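For reproducibility, we list the full input for the zinc ion complex.
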Amino acid sequence: MSKNLHSLPADTLIASSIPPESERRYQQLCAMRDDLRQRLPQELGALASSDDMRAGGDVVDMALGATNEPLHIGEVELVEQQLCNVDVAIARIQDGTHNQCEDCGLPISKARLNAVPSATRCVKCQRESEK
Ligand SMILES: [Zn+2]
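The corresponding predicted structure, in tokenized form, follows.
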């Protein structure tokens, strides 16, 4: 029934611990997370909601049809990977470490964080990790 609601983090509680200067980025990341979740195929929620779908098929079909275009396996993995990155970035904002490179510990530039809100490494370390 409402399993999805229970698995959502309590955003209202978390939001109060977000430093004001990070709040915009936090909102941005939450929006990205929601967007990515909607792009994932039904399979993640299907197990929990298969009974609901049978009961209220029309509503569910319309909701899914609006946001879910078929994705290839590789694309699903990519979206899941991005979703994971966004979750990590959100957790880092909550920890107050989001602008710290996870590899070298130096600050990540504001320009980079603005361009890639889910970045967890500075440009230099990101390049290293992609080699
Ligand atoms: Zn670094």
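Residues 45-57, 59-66 have pLDDT under 50 and may be disordered. The first helix runs from residue 3 to 7. Both points were considered when choosing residues for closer inspection.
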